[in-house]
Design goal:
Length: 341
């Protein structure tokens, strides 16, 4: 099944955006890139054997820059074509360049949980980085970005983001961080540019609150806790106004609880992942991870309800949070939001 507008809508919603995709061959090689049209202008798209490149104008940078997303081949003998392809892309245009994704090879022996010998692929990756004058940013949050999720555990750093000197000069505080991977064998990579604080937003009722067990009980309690006198229309107006006030207070506390609950779950999963990098998990820890994954799926299900409400896309079905489509390696929203790979 190819990438369609419906799939993109499920990933992103019906916002002001555009996208390009490289179809997968079997279960590998697929790339999806999505960007906000009001903040990023794409002047050129170049789809090659192992990569997709965009020539961009972004609202937070006056200079044009090139973005390349990679899905490297699993077979070592095919990677020679990958390095040739990337060098050709670099030669076509100098200037700011960012290249990242799944290179399907490590660079250093310590980037694998089982100490590896230095291979030709490792040398070729290092040579490409050096020849292209790219910066291999330190990875925060994890040592490895991929696991086979098998009893005979193998973990490697296959995913990375490389930037040119122009990027480092424009954004000297830029860094990449591995996020937890509750539903994938790859860690998402967050490229952080700057912090951004959003202003206040108008109140909107969150439909996900209806999923909470005591929602109806709360409404009954709030309806009866205040007494008003006057004509029926006035009483109804005042009761609804009072319920709105209580819902706003409750919704704020629920959102905070959900946010911190999600952070706690992801933090616990991340701790278990870090422990698994050094030693096998005990039976109790494996069961704890299963419970945490169930909690995470419930949190995500409620978030999907909220996003469906925000986008007014009733066709986004609950539970449609899966990884059956090619990975969305990079989502661009400009300076206000970090780049996610």
């Amino acid at each position: 099944m190819g990438v369609t507008e419906s799939i993109i809508n499920k990933l992103w919603g019906r916002l002001i955006r555009d996208w390009v995709a490289k179809e997968a061959v079997g279960a590998a090689g697929g790339i999806i890139m999505i960007w906000k049209c009001d903040q990023i202008t794409v002047e050129e798209v170049n789809i090659k054997g192992f990569s997709v490149s965009l020539l961009l104008n972004s609202s937070n940078w006056t200079e044009k820059w090139k973005l390349t997303v990679v899905y490297g081949p699993a077979r070592a003998r095919e990677r020679i074509a990958l390095w040739t392809e990337l060098r050709d892309i670099r030669e076509q245009r100098q200037g700011p360049w960012m290249v990242g994704g799944n290179f399907n090879t490590i660079r250093l022996p310590e980037e694998k949980n089982r100490m590896a010998l230095i291979t030709t692929s490792m040398r070729n990756l290092s040579n490409f980085i050096n020849d292209s004058a790219l910066i291999d940013l330190l990875l925060e949050g994890a040592r490895f970005t991929w696991t086979n999720n098998q009893e005979n555990l193998i973990m490697s750093r296959l995913d990375r983001i490389l930037i040119s000197m122009e990027w480092e000069e424009a954004f000297p505080l830029i860094y990449q961080r591995a996020l937890p991977k509750p539903t994938s064998d790859h860690n998402p990579i967050l490229l952080e540019l700057s912090n951004f604080l959003e202003g206040p937003r108008p109140f909107k009722f969150n439909l996900a609150l209806c999923e909470t067990p005591k929602f109806v009980d709360h409404i009954k309690l709030w309806w009866n806790e205040e007494y008003f006198e006057g004509w029926k229309g006035f009483i109804l107006f005042m009761k609804l106004k009072h319920i709105k006030m209580r819902i706003k207070e409750w919704q704020k506390s629920e959102i905070e609880a959900s946010r911190f609950g999600k952070e706690d779950v992801l933090s616990s999963l991340e701790s278990l992942e870090r422990k698994e990098e050094d030693s096998c998990l005990t039976t109790e820890e494996s069961m704890e991870r299963l419970v945490l994954l169930e909690e995470y799926e419930e949190i995500i299900r409620r978030e999907e309800i909220a996003w469906r409400q925000k986008s007014r896309s009733i066709w986004v079905k609950e539970g449609d949070h899966n990884s059956t489509f090619p990975p969305a390696w990079l989502i661009l929203e400009g300076e206000s939001t970090p780049l996610t790979a």
